[in-house]
Amino acid sequence: MENLQELIESADTLQTLEVARIEIFGKKGILAAEFAKMKSVPNEEKKEFAKNLNIEKAKLTGLFDAKKSLLQEAALSESMKKDGVDVTLFNSYNESGALHPVNETMNKIIDYFVSMNFSIEEERLVEDDFHNFEALNLPKYHPARDMQDTFYMNDDYVLRTHTSPVQIRTMMNKKVKPPIRMISPGSVFRRDFDVTHTPMFHQVEGLVVDDEGKVSFAHLKFILEDFLHYMFGNEIEIRFRPSYFPFTEPSAEVDISCVFCEGKGCRICSHTGWLEVLGSGMVDPNVFKAVGYENVSGYAFGFGVERFAMLIHRIPDLRSLFEADLRLLEQFR
Ligand code: DAH
């Protein structure tokens, strides 16, 4: 069998190796012929004969495999040398990407408020208790803190549960004086996970402050109605519903007529015909006190961007926005 080893070793191309393979391992090859000799071997020698032959076969197979990968590598580097890839060549299969629906919705929101002369403020994601709660009229042990189950870093720091602390940071910024017209887009964090909640999501906060008497609920109502019609179309109905937030007084939640059933009532709007989209109100005097403002009035609002994206694109499960599933994302190309 020496010469069989040589047959493999002397192959210098994949083609000659293939010829050797057929000659050695093929159905009518040398090994097959050797195995066929079993029939004429005396019974007591059969076991020994088969064992030796199998050892030989395994040796040859190992040799063959090693030789094959050697030759394949050589062939590959040869062909790379010969036909290099032209990376500048136009590729007609290039697929373009698209903005994620959350970014797309965020951009649309920002466009609206920038066109209305609002500035954009961005702030830190790890907030202290004072800015996230205390200054927003949410003292320690206030039951309303339960509305926002929180990731605490330690006793004093939290992953911000809303974008409202940016109101405080903006008003306390020495370089900023009323009139203020700002929005603050960004991520926020809560201990929630179900079809309409994820632990990280995005909000946009709005704040308008000017001399006392210059900013009223009528201004708030105008801007939010105009904004919601811009986002959801002029056909939708809008209603302001009295509500409670610690940092606004009076407070209102804003509903739009259900975009799924056009207000007739369906499972998604719990058969009310309305969907809640936004919190808002006139800035509570205690908030102005906390930041040292006097003789001003203002309004504020805040809402979740994922919820807007879901309603605009009729996405039934909010969590799917964070699954990076191309079947969803490709629809936005
Ligand atoms: N921060 C509130 C939340 O996360 C939303 C909100 C409600 C913001 C009313 C406001 C507001 O500025 O006036 O639920």
Would you write up a description of this structure?
The protein has 333 residues and is an alpha+beta fold. The protein folds into 2 domains: 2-85; 101-332, BirA Bifunctional Protein, domain 2, CATH 3.30.930.10. 39% of the residues lie in helices and 20% in strands. The chain is built from 11 helices and 9 strands. It is elongated and about 110 Å long. The mean pLDDT is 92. The structure holds 3,4-dihydroxyphenylalanine (DAH).
Largest sheet properties: 7 strands, mixed
Bound molecules: 3,4-dihydroxyphenylalanine
How far apart lie the N and C ends?
63 Å
Number of helix segments?
11
Strand order of the largest sheet: 1-4-5-9-8-7-6
Number of domain units: 2
Multimeric organization? single chain
- Give the low-confidence spans: none
**What class do helices, strands and sheet pairing give?**
alpha+beta
